[in-house]
Design a protein that fits this description.
Layout lengths: L26 H13 L5
Length: 44
């Protein structure tokens, strides 16, 4: 018997708003930092 891979979505539903309440930085800064992280990946 083979093992089946389960794919689980980690993205919130499209109608859910993203909340950054309780973080040190404003939402604009967090969003920009995440964009930079995915736009310019670091190679190891």
């Amino acid at each position: 018997m083979g093992m089946k891979k389960a794919f689980v979505s980690v993205l919130p539903p499209a109608d859910a708003s993203i909340s950054f309440k309780g973080y040190r930085f404003p939402p604009d800064v967090i969003s920009y930092a995440v964009w930079l992280y995915y736009r310019f990946p670091q190679s190891r």
